[in-house]
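During data preparation, a discrete fold description was generated, as reproduced here:
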Amino acid sequence: MPSPLRTYLAEGLGTFILILFGCGAVHSAVLTGSQSGLWQVAIIWGIGVALAAYSVGGVSGAHINPAMTIALATWGRFPWARVAPYIGVQLIGAILAAAVLFVIYGPSLKQKEDKMGVKRGEMGSVVTASCYGEFYPAPGGVLTAEGKWLESEWEVFQARATFTEALVAEIICTAVLALVVFAVTDNKNSAAPAPYLAPLVCGLTVAALISIIAPLTQCCLNPARDFGPRLFTYFAGWGAAAMPGPNGWHGVIGVYIIAPILGAIAGGGITTI
């Protein structure tokens, strides 16, 4: 059995891999336009999930998601004593990945903000902040044809997804993800794929869910995926534009932390009860 330290380091590394791939794809799409359509971003997130699981799953189990860790503990598949350390290293891994992306995409971030006509920290910089944390609705679609930010357009655009729609979307989609994760890793499930295929199934599930709700909530499903990078951007110059951002604290806490946790517990419970 791996030592606790090795287990925690592996879990942090797995989350780092996930965020590097996933948020890296978002950076590429938002800042350079190199991704053609949502599916390309979604499938890279899915590949990130699979690669993280293949890399560290044998050591830490590759939860790479506080909601999944809490759900596994709730249904007796993980010790509660390790929940807090796992969440801690998941957040650290996510923050470190955000820092790496901030360094390598620094010039591109500046160019994007200059083109939009905003300064980092102003509300319009939520577009570049969305390369890290998440907002509802996904703010990139509000830009004009010239790539400019208009406050008046944002106020209208926000009606696309209110707190209610965002909350429901994150609960339901995280429940689906947890259901799949619990099902494909259950030794008693005769229909489960071979263990070496489980990471691919989980990754494809994430990609499919992103394709459904990313235009609304950017598709969180994972509190570490949002809060770690969001916390980094707060201190990296975005300030209140990133946290709490235009959705307020009820969005940060309710939609991107509580909703995925509730969804994961519910989804895992379906296969357990």
